[in-house]
Amino acid sequence: IGDRPGIANSLINLGITYNFLSDYNQAVESLEQGLNISREINSRLGEGQALSILGQIFLKNNNYMKAEQT
Fold first, then answer.
1. To 5 degrees, how large is the angle CA 40–CA 45–CA 46?
2. d(CA 10, CA 61)
């Protein structure tokens, strides 16, 4: 319940899985939740992972403005 790093990591991994399954809306939702927690706990690794995958998803979906912002 109090394992914030574990929760962030799980959400990011879930986002990666949804991305692999081409469920981009779910992937973005999970990754953004993981990103927010990673930022709250100052996890640069989690933040970098989430931002990297989010950027890839936005590029795949031709959302270049959003990709550039991540």
1. 50
2. 24
16-44 residue pLDDT tens: 999 999 999 999 999 999 999 999 999 99
Maximum distance among all Cα pairs of the chain, rounded to whole angstroms:
37
Question: For 61, left (φ over 0), alpha (ψ -120 to 50), or beta?
Answer: alpha
Say which residue, 14 or 62, is predicted with more confidence.
14
Structure tokens belonging to residue 11: 């959400």
Q: Quick one: pLDDT band at residue 1, thresholds 50, 70, 90?
A: low
Q: Cα(45)–Cα(53) distance, rounded to whole angstroms?
A: 12
